[in-house]
């Protein structure tokens, strides 16, 4: 091709690539090995960090910078000057981002934005969509460059088999990269989303890139020319010198590249997420610009020499490869090839990891969690996360490949890269605003980004598909529907601007303006306010948390946190259930790993997995901002916004929590008092019959009592002994019933039968009393499945009570039985004075005998037992007011199922 | 620390300076591209050296502050 | 030395036992079951010893005792408190209010008799 002798057979080239990838894989694998990770401290050195940042220099830099210089002279430098300014200005923005990233355990740029604006998943999705859309052409670009470099290198006529066509090469490269990334990036699910192995491999690739480009540069300057002086004059003589500096593009591109180095998901990944120590930034602040400068140093000489030496029409994007080839330097050319390969692969790997994390955490996982039946979220979610990451990686690389096929690989490399930059720059206002301006709101960020992204897509992204693509020539020339001021490259009638700068200007201006305006007009939610304060004030004591040791405090903090996300009722219910599962009373379970896992899942359902994890880490992890800090910040914010309606809501919420706690406390006190009262009641009920028994037995033991009196005393002893036995029986019965450990013997019987038995048994109570019972036998002839003995016990109790306590002159009991749906209702209504209203609530309590006048045995446990029996039978017993006498309603199911 | 904040502003000034002496569009006489390039790389190098000097000093200041017993940092880039 | 005991106790069998024990020793026993009526009955009957159950229908024995102690005419009347609630709290409360003696049910007959005798002779 292009008149240069190809030197390497295709399959050898493939073998070289595979060997290189294998070396990288071994590096990554070894580094992630725990023993080595502990020993090799240099792995965490600022040097590795700085080198990993070099993924900023993709194949676009490696190959494209020369092409860019050949076309537009020194303008290519703007792409590296912007990041240089950002890094030497690290004290402003980067330091804050890294600190926030650590404090909030941010997993991606989407997570950062989502977390800042009240853990909004909407924003997470939005950022993810923008990032994926912008990254797709960029990945396509890498595929294209690798494919082109393959094409340059591989001999077209080959005894070992011809190289496949361009498309096939691109496909294989894509598949290979996807596989490689999956193997690298998702071997395990690191709790903090860091990938030491990948980062180290990337650092190795960075060295290869730099050495290769410097090698080619040195070869060009001292090999093909006689040193700097000659190059200097060659530059002056070459067409490259004819470029003119367009101030608009110069400023715009410096700004744009600076924005991109902050907003590109892969840059955010290596700069913030993979950052091990904040001080590494200080080194990177000069070392990374140095790397960029070295990468740019020989670009112009290579471009100039290429234009001079190589034949007319040679692709300047490939000079880095073709110059050494033309000079007969096979080894150098191979190094350059590997350099380009490194640039492309490292970019794709990190971009795919970063984007897959975003897609997985903000789109797939929330969706998956929502699909789950809410109570059944269980099992191995990590497996699902890994799977979703892997699928996302494949999907993202696949998208890149699809774009490559669609765009036909035609456009100049640099153009695609800049389009991508403008896309991710749409995140900039929300990001910078988010870390410096507490008043920024979710709504502002969302509308700003949507508008900016829309303008970007319309004026730059879609037109990049070419005239046959989505936007036709007619629309480009005359606007949609002939509306001239909507022409994609001349919005609002402003013509003559460079299309890129035009799109950058309008998208970012509209984005930032909307963002500010909507934020000012709206109110941040309490959550947004807490997060906003935590982000903006991240330096204020974030690292000096005292630590609140002790499980209880932590559980309480978790409860507060969860209440904010799940709502109080749900959070309290969840905590209570967990506490019960741990065998504890109350609302505060021990923060065991199981409990935390469960809680994280629960939270993830509301805010997404990443946010949930970050929030839990906040509470559990020592190094991060504590909840106390968050609460303190919230309080401070609260004072500022004292009169806002939202705040009242918040304080209402707080007082509601306080009230609930107070109530819980009262209930506990009450319970303990009740227990005391119960014990003293039991004592009384047991000692009373025992007193009579002891007194009369002592009298009888003295032996001087006349026999008929002795018989009477013995009778009293006997009846008191029976009373004592019955009391003990009742107590045992009650405790069995209350524990729910009662065994039910189910049988099919008619209600009629049961009532007959009950009436017979209850007849023994005050048998001398005249007592009328009115029944309706046909309505009672219904078969029910229940425990006959237990239900009869309840009926006996009710009938005996009526016999005992009905104070009418002609006592009468009405029993009304009927069926309602699957339930039976039985009412027992007498014609006495009934139970006074204030006592109606008490009668089912233990020892709640209302009057002691009519004591026919029993300790006031009867109705309490009835209530427990009915609960065991799946029914209820209630007092039925307003019936003209004492009235009780018993309901129970027609068919009682045996509990499993 | 103020120096650290001023550095990018100095950088922006140095990098934007070539706009002032750039020729009007269409004017072909122009300046020496090679000399412009040299200037930019020189400015770049100066910035890198300054950043390196500042960076190491800032780190030692930071570490001083983080030592137990000393007050947490009250300075904040967001002020 | 008087021989009149007034007993306030709601359990008929216990009343019968105490009445039997004391009557054999020559005491005259008047029995009441209701706490509400006890104070007035004690004031009018002027017994030598009062035996007062703590748990009474109508009015607690402790209340009755407090009322007796508040009145000059009955503040020195010997009162034996009885309780079946086996808790120290009742005893402490009774002693605070001014019970002369305190016994927990069930009691031994001889002890009951001895206590009544002692209270009457004091």
Structural account:
The complex is a heterotrimer of chains A (900), B (79) and C (122). Chain A is built from 36 helices and seven strands. Chain A is mostly helical and 900 residues long. By secondary structure, chain B is mainly α. Chain B has a domain at 40-68. Chain B is 67% helix and 0% strand. In chain B, α1 packs antiparallel against α3 (33-66). Chain B is elongated, with a radius of gyration of 19 Å. Mean pLDDT of chain B is 68; it is low at 25-29 and 68-79. With 122 residues, chain C is an alpha/beta fold. Chain C has one domain (4-115): Rossmann fold (3-Layer(aba) Sandwich), CATH 3.40.50. Helices cover 47% and strands 20% of the residues of chain C. Chain C has helices spanning 12-24, 35-45, 61-70, 88-97, 109-121, and strands spanning 4-8, 28-32, 49-53, 79-83, 101-104. In chain C, strands 2-1-3-4-5 form a five-stranded parallel β-sheet, with helices on both faces. In chain C, β3 (49-53), α3 (61-70) and β4 (79-83) form a beta-alpha-beta unit. Chain C is globular. The N and C termini of chain C lie close together (9 Å). At the A-B interface, α5, α11, α12 and α14 of A face α1 and α3 of B.
Topology:
The complex is a heterotrimer of chains A (900), B (79) and C (122).
Chain A: H1 10-32, H2 34-39, H3 46-53, H4 59-72, H5 78-88, H6 94-103, H7 109-116, H8 121-153, H9 166-185, H10 196-224, H11 228-237, H12 247-263, H13 265-273, H14 280-297, H15 299-309, H16 319-326, H17 330-371, H18 381-407, H19 413-425, H20 428-436, H21 442-461, H22 473-478, H23 499-521, H24 526-536, H25 551-566, H26 568-581, H27 593-607, H28 609-620, H29 627-640, H30 645-702, H31 707-739, E1 747-750, H32 751-762, E2 772-774, H33 777-780, E3 783-786, H34 788-805, E4 812-820, E5 823-830, H35 837-840, H36 862-872, E6 876-879, E7 887-893
Parallel strand pairs in A: 2-4
Antiparallel strand pairs in A: 1-3, 4-5, 5-7, 6-7
Helix pairs in contact in A: 1-10, 3-10, 3-14, 4-15, 4-17, 5-12, 5-14, 7-8, 8-9, 8-17, 8-18, 8-19, 8-21, 9-17, 9-18, 10-14, 10-15, 10-16, 10-17, 11-15, 12-13, 12-19, 12-23, 13-17, 15-16, 16-17, 17-18, 17-27, 19-21, 19-23, 21-23, 24-29, 25-26, 25-28, 27-28, 30-31, 31-36, 32-34, 34-36
Chain B: H1 2-16, H2 18-21, H3 33-66
Helix pairs in contact in B: 1-3
Chain C: E1 4-8, H1 12-24, E2 28-32, H2 35-45, E3 49-53, H3 61-70, E4 79-83, H4 88-97, E5 101-104, H5 109-121
Parallel strand pairs in C: 1-2, 1-3, 3-4, 4-5
Helix pairs in contact in C: 2-3
């Amino acid at each position: 091709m292009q008149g240069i002798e190809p030197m390497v057979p295709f399959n050898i080239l493939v073998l070289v690539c595979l060997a290189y990838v294998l070396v990288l894989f071994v590096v990554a694998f070894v580094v992630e090995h725990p023993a080595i990770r502990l020993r090799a401290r240099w792995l965490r050195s600022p040097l590795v960090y700085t080198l990993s940042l070099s993924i900023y220099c993709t194949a676009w830099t490696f190959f494209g910078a020369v092409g860019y210089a050949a076309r537009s002279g020194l303008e290519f430098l703007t792409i590296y000057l912007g990041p240089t300014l950002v890094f030497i200005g690290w004290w402003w923005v980067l330091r804050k981002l890294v600190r926030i990233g650590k404090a909030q355990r941010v997993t991606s740029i989407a997570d950062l934005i989502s977390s800042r604006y009240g853990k909004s998943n909407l924003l997470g999705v939005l950022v993810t969509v923008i990032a994926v859309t912008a990254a797709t052409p960029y990945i396509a670009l890498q595929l294209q460059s690798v494919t082109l470099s393959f094409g340059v290198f591989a001999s077209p006529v080959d005894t070992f088999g011809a190289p496949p066509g361009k498309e096939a090469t691109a496909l294989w490269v894509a598949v290979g990269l996807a596989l490689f990334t999956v193997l690298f990036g998702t071997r395990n699910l690191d709790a903090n989303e860091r990938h030491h192995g990948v980062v180290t491999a990337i650092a190795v690739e960075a060295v290869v890139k730099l050495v290769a480009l410097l090698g080619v540069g040195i070869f060009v300057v001292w090999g093909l020319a006689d040193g700097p002086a000659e190059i200097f004059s060659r530059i002056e003589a070459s067409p490259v010198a004819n470029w003119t500096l367009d101030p608009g593009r110069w400023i715009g591109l410096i700004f744009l590249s600076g924005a991109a180095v902050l907003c590109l998901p892969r840059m955010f990944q290596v700069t913030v997420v993979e950052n091990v120590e904040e001080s590494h930034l200080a080194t990177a602040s000069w070392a990374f610009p140095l790397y960029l400068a070295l990468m740019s140093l020989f670009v112009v000489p290579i471009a100039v020499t290429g234009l001079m030496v190589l034949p007319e029409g040679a692709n300047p994007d490939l000079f880095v490869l073709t110059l050494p080839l033309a000079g007969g330097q096979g080894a150098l050319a191979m190094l350059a090839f590997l350099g380009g390969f490194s640039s492309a692969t490292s970019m794709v790997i990190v971009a795919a990891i970063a984007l897959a994390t975003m897609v997985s955490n903000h789109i797939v996982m929330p969706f998956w969690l929502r699909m789950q039946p809410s109570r059944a979220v269980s099992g191995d979610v990590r497996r699902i996360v890994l799977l979703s990451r892997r699928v996302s990686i494949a999907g993202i690389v696949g998208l890149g490949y699809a774009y490559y096929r669609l765009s036909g690989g035609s456009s100049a490399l640099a153009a695609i890269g800049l389009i991508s930059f403008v896309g991710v720059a749409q995140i900039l206002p929300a990001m910078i605003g988010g870390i410096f301006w507490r008043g920024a709101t979710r709504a502002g960020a969302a509308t700003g980004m949507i508008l900016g992204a829309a303008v970007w897509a319309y004026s730059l992204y879609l037109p990049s598909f070419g005239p046959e693509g989505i936007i036709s020539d007619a629309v480009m020339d005359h606007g949609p529907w002939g509306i001239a001021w909507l022409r994609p490259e001349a919005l609002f009638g402003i013509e003559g601007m460079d299309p890129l700068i035009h799109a950058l200007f309008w998208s970012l201006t509209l984005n930032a303006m909307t963002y500010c305006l909507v934020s000012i007009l709206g109110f941040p939610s309490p959550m947004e306010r807490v997060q906003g304060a935590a982000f903006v004030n991240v330096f204020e004591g974030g690292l000096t948390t005292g630590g609140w040791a002790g499980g209880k405090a932590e559980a309480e903090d978790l409860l507060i946190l969860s209440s904010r996300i799940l709502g109080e009722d749900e959070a309290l219910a969840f905590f209570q259930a967990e506490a019960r599962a741990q065998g504890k009373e109350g609302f505060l379970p021990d923060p065991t790993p199981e409990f935390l896992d469960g809680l994280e899942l629960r939270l993830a359902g509301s805010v997404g997995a990443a946010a949930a994890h970050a929030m839990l880490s906040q509470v559990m992890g020592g190094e991060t901002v504590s909840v106390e800090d968050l609460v303190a910040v919230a309080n401070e914010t609260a004072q500022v916004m004292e009169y806002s309606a939202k705040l009242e809501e918040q304080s209402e919420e707080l007082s509601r929590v306080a009230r609930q706690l107070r109530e819980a406390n009262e209930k506990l006190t009450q319970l303990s008092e009740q227990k005391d009262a119960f014990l003293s009641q039991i004592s009384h009920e047991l000692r009373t019959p025992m007193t009579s028994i002891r007194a009369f037995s002592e009298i009888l033991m003295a032996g001087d009592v006349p026999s008929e009196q002795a018989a009477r005393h013995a009778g009293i002893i006997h009846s008191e002994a029976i009373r004592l036995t019955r009391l003990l029986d009742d107590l045992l019965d009650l405790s069995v019933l209350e524990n729910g450990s009662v065994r039910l013997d189910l049988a099919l019987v008619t209600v009629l039968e049961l009532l007959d038995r009950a009436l017979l048994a209850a007849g023994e109570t005050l048998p001398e009393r005249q007592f009328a019972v009115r029944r309706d036998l046909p309505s009672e002839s219904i078969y029910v499945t229940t425990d006959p003995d237990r239900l009869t016990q309840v009926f006996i109790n009710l009938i005996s009570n009526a016999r005992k306590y009905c104070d009418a002159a002609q006592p009468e009991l009405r029993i009304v039985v009927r069926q309602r749906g699957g339930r039976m209702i039985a009412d027992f209504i007498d014609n006495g004075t009934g139970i006074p209203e204030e006592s109606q609530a008490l009668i089912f309590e233990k020892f709640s005998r209302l009057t002691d006048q009519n004591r026919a045995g029993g300790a006031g446990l009867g109705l309490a037992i009835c209530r427990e029996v009915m609960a065991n039978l799946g029914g209820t017993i209630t007092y039925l007011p307003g019936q003209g006498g004492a009235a009780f309603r018993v309901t129970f199911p027609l068919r009682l199922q045996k509990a499993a | 620390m103020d120096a650290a904040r001023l550095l990018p502003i100095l950088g922006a000034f140095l990098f934007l300076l070539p706009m002032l002496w750039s020729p009007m569009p269409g004017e072909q006489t122009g300046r020496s591209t090679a000399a412009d390039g040299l200037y930019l790389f020189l400015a770049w190098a100066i910035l890198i050296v300054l950043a390196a000097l500042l960076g190491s000093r800032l780190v030692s200041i930071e570490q001083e502050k983080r030592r137990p017993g000393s007050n947490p940092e009250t300075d904040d880039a967001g002020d | 030395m008087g021989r009149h005991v007034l007993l306030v106790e709601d359990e008929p069998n216990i009343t019968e036992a105490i009445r039997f024990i004391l009557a054999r020793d020559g005491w005259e026993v008047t029995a009441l079951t209701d706490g509400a009526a006890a104070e007035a009955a004690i004031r009018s009957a002027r017994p030598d010893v009062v035996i007062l159950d703590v748990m009474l229908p109508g009015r607690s024995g402790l209340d009755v005792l407090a009322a007796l102690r508040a009145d000059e005419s009955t503040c020195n009347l010997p009162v034996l408190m009885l309780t079946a609630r086996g808790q120290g709290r009742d005893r402490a409360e009774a002693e605070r209010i001014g019970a002369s003696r305190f016994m927990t049910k069930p009691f031994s007959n001889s002890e009951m008799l001895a206590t009544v005798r002692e209270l009457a002779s004091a």
